[in-house]
Write a structure and sequence with these properties.
heterotrimer; A mainly alpha; B alpha/beta; C mainly alpha; A: mainly alpha; ABC transporter involved in vitamin B12 uptake, BtuC; two-stranded antiparallel ribbon; 2 strands; 2% strand; B: alpha/beta; Rossmann fold; 3 domains; six-stranded mixed β-sheet; 17 helices; 25% strand; globular
């Protein structure tokens, strides 16, 4: 039983990282921008959030928990947002190809994070922001001690709940507000949205930048909670970034599906570590990688399935990946 | 009227697309409480001019005054803020959203976002004007006329007081047209300014107070409808009175070339585009196909050319010695390999018949690039063909290496028709071969078709201008919503007969729908 | 008539400060001038970046960067080797992109080719003579890469499944499979080491003292071949027609599905060859990092070069030159590290990507084209 709980815990931690990533990417993609720079954005958010927290707690004798969190989240959000802004300038204003710009952003983002990361490491292999890690992993007192129930639902740092709330808010935003309706129209058919008086450029910019910021929060969660508050050059942010892109498809571009989808991906990803023990057999260690393929394979199957079904509601935004120029003819 | 402030005044408007001048120093005035018909042939710049009023395009030169004050309309939003709403010919609707969602798109009403309230308000508007539309229906489930209704309701919902309708009747049945015109009259009564873009003269007479005419991007003038006549309007539209006088050589020894039997086509959206259509196409004659646009003409030609999957029926090609080949189930390449020389001038010239970004030579190659056994494509013969076409058909182009997209509509069509005729076809299918062409180019195309006919080619001419159809074609088939409503002799049929046949079935269907 | 009033209000009315219009055409020297300017701009931005972060003299840093490639003949030829690798993948992507098929899966296709090469080397290396082994490695690499491309291509052709996302996912499937197999092969050891280290079976022969000479030759041949294929053959023409207008392709009877699958098989096969030459001519081993992320960089190269192998060679060389230079400055200056190359690469890519806008569109500023009405 404790193994099952440990597995679930691990899946939730893991899922929270990609939940932020996918939620951000969904907002972006809903505006018709396919930003393949998710890994780069998570790198940017992860590093700057870490660096902010790290320098803050090393600059004062008595770091405040609230400030530590605020600094980390703000740094992560704003830096990733700058990445999104760069992407928007290139793809929306300058109408550069989205796939290519996104991939360049991935290279650039990981370059920036790791370049400055090496500066922070200062010759070492890893550094730890201990205080921030403590704050980010702090459980809710009382509730977390409520037996199995508490173990499954309340043994996490606050960001796990923030991720769910953000995903729910985004879901509400997209489906139940004027702005969300306009955003969907921009991603489906920018010419129509434009004719209806929606400022397509503004929506694309805002959606991409805010989406990038949320994606960046996944990065900072990865470093300060999932990664035990340590920064090192060897990390798997990139792989998680691509999984976040996969999850968007898996969730058929609906934020409400991301919440459970992220945890399912987490369960699959960590299955190798727990299931054999639970079932009482040992797994050869080469099988680990094969099992980690499952989320990607499942995503491919979903992709095939939605293309076969041709149901308009579960397709991605119709204008995804296309630049918009009003006077095109 | 000179004493009244115009609701809209456009002065000296010029708009260029690359080297093409779409509007040249156009001036237009629109008053409240009137319906202005903006009349002009296809491609005369009517839509472009109105798009600038609606904020889709921005004029290169000129000024726009709304209620006497100059405004710079930089986006559709600016236009809406000035109370200008446009109903585009190609609907601007988001497929995956509902009617109500489309209607409130881009609006920022104060208060909570409440789709139920929106739906109720939409229903109220529908009741007021007699529209029938379900606000909660998704657009992709709607028929064309339902979609147009949504577009109109959208503009009404926004309380626009200057309305522009771009060829609104093109997709409507006569009843729907009547309903629409009644709505327009109601709106006129409530002091709105309305522009209706059209090239149909009887509609102008039916509904408008004043008519403004554009010709080749130039504003010709405006007259009060009650003071004018069809003759005068036509004169303004085309420059001189239409005495078509199209040649119609006698048909010599017609033989059945293609036999179409019980052809039924159902589109991807599940709409019956063709319903049990049977007819034959004969050598040495021009078969005209008449119908309101979107009545199955496209599907019919594409089915014969091997581009359209069909539900049932047969299309047989009859060779000179009487043997028959089934064309259905074969793609264009298979058909060519049967030895059937079938040429097809499709409606969508740059999107299907030609590749816009390729030059003349490479476009000539489309039909011939497979020739020879080498893995390399031969560019010499296509280049010579391009030279011949440019020379013989007077194609106005800077050179053979100019992308065809940069040519004007008429020249593009000459390139396409020139290539298709060069293949020495036995069957020549043409869809709207003279759409958007000037008079001279049009006559050149009629001539080319007649020469093909004299050579014994079986020619099909899908057209929209009934005057041309009755003067050019030997027989005319009338389609209505996928039904074949009749086959008449081009020499004896009158325009009115054909016009009636084009709309007759629509009424029948509506009745059966209701029960 | 109220012309006076109109004039007054015309002054008050706002014309947008800047408008965008599509260019009809731009002379070649101008369009390449713009691109060259963008690279210069990128170098200036990078210099500012280096200076502001480290305080080093950017000119001196660029001189050291130059050394990364031109210090010695060995550094130059390794630059060529890596350029060849990047170019090879770009060449592989060209036909797919020309067809507007977004093959983001080069990384995985390269790995699939490399993995098949390694499989043959490991299991048949000691059974077959070298003259038979190398062709067999080649064939299996081609088959591996082609298979990895075929899967998304078939679904695209049959169901119109989104190829961008499909091929992207296929990368990670390949990476994990390679990880799994290398895990088996290395057993308890920490790394695989060179395959057939003792017998050198399946290794490329030394030419001019380097094994990877053969890599460069193969890629040169492939590049020229691809140029001819796209420019002069019937297949190349079909690909171009599909890329420009799928409707036209159907109209003239091109079997679009067949060409999509065929072109992707070719694309994947050449990626497979890239894996083959990396494993047999450069690394002598395989890992999930064998493709070095070139599969992604090549996408950018192929796109920027407009599918022209000549330009691809230039851009590939530029990027590898930067990478080598960054490694060089990282070892020369304590304040810089290898990752500077990703940053500089990113800056250059952003600048070139952005410059395409100025090639395709022109800006019209307020005041121009406003001749109407007033006589001053």
């Amino acid at each position: 039983m404790s193994l099952v709980i440990a597995w679930i815990n691990r899946a939730v931690w893991f899922g929270t990282v990609i939940m932020f990533g996918s939620t951000g990417e969904i907002i972006t993609e809903r505006s018709g921008n396919l930003n393949l720079g998710v890994p780069g954005l998570m790198f940017l958010g992860g590093f700057s959030g870490f660096a902010g927290a790290y320098y803050y707690e090393n600059s004062t004798q008595h770091p405040s928990a609230v400030l530590s969190v605020l600094i980390a989240l703000l740094c992560a959000f704003l830096t990733a947002m700058l990445g999104g802004l760069l992407y928007s300038i290139l793809t929306v204003t300058l109408r550069a190809n989205q796939n290519v710009t996104g991939l360049a952003l991935s290279i650039f983002g990981s370059g920036v994070a790791n370049f400055f990361g090496v500066q922070v490491l200062n010759g070492g292999t890893s550094v730890k922001a201990s205080f921030a890690n403590t704050v980010f992993t702090a459980k809710i007192p009382g509730l977390s001690a409520a037996g199995v129930f508490g173990d499954i639902f309340f043994s996490y740092g606050f960001m796990v709940y923030v991720a769910i709330i953000v995903a729910l808010l985004v879901n509400h935003f997209i489906y139940h507000t004027h702005f969300g309706l306009n955003l969907r129209a921009v991603g489906e058919n920018p010419a129509t949205a434009d004719a209806a008086g929606i400022d397509v450029t503004k929506y694309k910019y805002l959606a991409t930048c805010i989406g990038a910021g949320i994606t960046g929060l996944g990065g900072v969660y990865y470093v300060l909670d999932y990664g035990y508050g340590t920064w090192s050059t060897a990390n798997s942010i990139e792989a998680l970034g691509w999984l976040a892109v996969a999850l968007v498809i898996f969730a058929t571009w609906k934020p409400r599906n991301i919440i459970w989808g992220a945890y399912v991906f987490g369960l699959f990803y960590w299955l190798y570590n727990y299931l054999p023990n639970i079932m009482g057999f040992t797994l050869p260690n080469y099988a680990v990688q094969l099992i980690q393929t499952v989320p990607y394979v499942v995503t491919i199957l979903v992709l095939i399935f939605i293309s076969m079904k041709k149901k308009k509601d579960s397709q991605g935004p119709a204008a995804l990946g296309l630049a918009y120029f009003r006077e095109e003819r | 009227m000179d004493n009244i402030q115009p609701a809209v005044k456009m002065c000296g408007i010029t708009k260029r697309f690359g080297t093409v001048v779409a509007n040249d120093n156009c001036t237009l005035e629109l008053y409240r409480g009137e319906i202005l018909a903006l009349l002009g042939e296809n491609g005369s710049g009517k839509t472009t001019l109105m798009n600038m009023l609606a904020g889709i395009y921005y004029p290169d030169e000129g000024q726009i005054f709304v209620d006497g004050k100059e405004h710079s309309i930089r986006s559709p939003k600016d236009a809406l803020d000035l109370g200008i709403g446009m109903i585009h010919q190609h609907f601007k609707l988001v497929d995956v959203l509902t009617a109500a969602e489309n209607i409130v798109l881009g609006l920022h009403e104060p208060g909570r976002f409440d789709m139920k309230a929106v739906s109720a308000k939409v229903r109220a508007i529908c009741d007021q004007y007699g529209f029938d539309v379900d606000p909660d229906m998704k657009i992709y489930d709607m028929s064309v006329s339902q979609k147009q209704t949504v577009e109109i309701v959208k503009v009404l919902y926004r309380g626009a007081n200057i309305l522009i309708l771009d060829e609104p009747t093109a997709v409507l049945t006569p009843q729907e047209t009547d309903t629409l015109f009644n709505v327009l009259r109601n709106m006129r009564r409530s002091g709105k300014a309305i522009v209706i873009i059209t090239h149909k003269l009887h509609e102008v007479l039916d509904v408008s107070d004043r008519v403004a005419v554009l010709r080749k991007g130039v504003f010709v003038g405006s007259v009060r409808t009650q003071d004018t006549s069809i003759g005068e309007m036509t004169n303004m539209m085309v420059g001189h009175a239409v005495t078509l006088n199209i040649d119609r050589p006698a048909v010599k020894d017609p033989k059945s070339r293609i036999e179409v039997k019980d052809l039924t086509v159902i589109s991807e959206d599940g709409i019956k585009k063709l319903d049990d259509v049977s007819f034959d196409i004969r050598t040495g004659e021009i078969l005209g196909i008449a119908g309101i646009s979107g009545c199955g003409q496209k599907e019919l030609l594409e089915a014969i050319a091997g581009l359209q999957p069909v539900e049932s029926g047969s299309v047989e090609y009859i060779t000179d010695d009487g043997s028959r080949e089934q064309l259905l189930g074969r793609n264009p390449l298979d058909i060519a390999q049967l030895g059937v020389s079938l040429s097809f001038v499709p409606e969508d010239r740059l999107g299907m018949g030609l590749v816009g970004s390729m030059d003349l030579t490479d476009n000539m190659m489309l039909r011939s690039f497979r020739n020879g056994h080498s893995i390399f494509a031969d560019r010499k013969a296509p280049k010579q063909l391009a030279e011949r076409v440019v020379d013989k058909l007077n194609v106005n182009t800077p050179g053979l290496s100019t992308p065809v997209r940069k040519l004007s509509g008429g020249n593009v069509q000459k390139v396409l028709v020139g290539r298709e005729i060069a293949a020495a076809p036995t069957v020549l299918l043409t869809a709207y071969a003279v759409r958007g062409l000037d008079i001279n180019s049009s006559y050149m195309i009629y001539d080319l078709l007649n020469r093909q006919k004299e050579k014994g080619v079986a020619v099909v001419y899908v057209g929209e201008d009934l005057d041309v159809l009755v003067e050019l074609c030997d027989r005319i088939m009338v389609l209505c919503a996928g039904h074949m409503n009749g086959m008449v002799d081009g020499r004896s049929a009158s325009k009115n007969d054909i016009g009636l046949m084009m709309t007759r079935l629509a009424k029948k269907e509506e009745k059966t729908d209701e029960h | 008539m109220s012309t006076e009033a109109e004039k007054k209000s015309s002054e008050a009315a706002k014309v947008p400060f800047v408008r965008i219009a599509k260019r009809t055409a731009l002379p070649i020297w101008k369009s390449w001038g713009i691109r060259l300017l963008s690279v210069l701009l990128a170098l200036i931005i990078s210099a500012l970046f280096i200076f502001s972060v480290t305080g080093l003299d950017p000119i001196a840093v660029y001189v050291v960067m130059w050394d990364g490639t031109f210090k010695s003949s060995y550094s130059f030829i390794t630059t060529l080797r890596d350029t060849a690798m990047l170019l090879c993948i770009s060449v592989a992507l060209a036909p797919a992109f020309r067809m507007k098929f977004w093959n983001i899966g080069a990384e995985g296709q390269v790995l699939a080719g490399g993995l098949c090469t390694a499989l043959v080397m490991i299991y048949l290396g000691n059974l077959l003579p070298q003259w038979l082994l190398l062709p067999l490695m080649f064939v299996s690499a081609v088959a591996g890469g082609a298979l990895w491309a075929f899967i998304p291509a078939w679904f695209k052709a049959r169901w119109n499944t989104n190829e961008t996302l499909f091929t992207l996912m296929m990368n990670y499937v390949a990476i994990n499979i390679v990880d799994c197999l290398t895990n088996i092969w290395r057993g308890a050891k920490s790394s695989m080491g060179n395959i057939n280290a003792s017998t050198q079976a399946g290794w490329f022969p030394l030419i001019f003292g380097y094994r990877f000479t053969l890599n460069i030759i193969i890629v040169a041949v492939l590049s020229v071949g691809m140029y001819m294929y796209l420019r002069f053959t019937k297949h190349g023409y079909e690909i171009a027609v599909i890329g420009e207008s799928e409707n036209t392709a159907k109209y003239i009877g091109i079997n679009v599905r067949k060409v999509v699958v065929r072109t992707m098989l070719l694309s994947g096969a050449i990626c497979g060859i890239a894996g083959f030459i990396t494993v047999a001519g450069k690394n002598m081993t395989i890992s999930s990092g064998t493709a070095e992320g070139f599969g992604f960089t090549a996408i950018i190269v192929a796109w920027l070069a407009k599918f022209n192998p000549g330009y691809m060679a230039l851009i590939s060389f530029l990027l590898i030159f930067l990478q080598k230079g960054a490694t060089q400055i990282a070892s020369s200056y304590a304040a810089l590290n290898d990752y500077a190359s990703s940053i500089v690469t990113g800056i250059i890519l952003f600048c070139i990507l952005g410059s395409e806008f100025f090639v395709n569109y022109s800006l019209i500023f307020r005041g121009k084209h406003q001749k109407g009405g007033e006589k001053a």
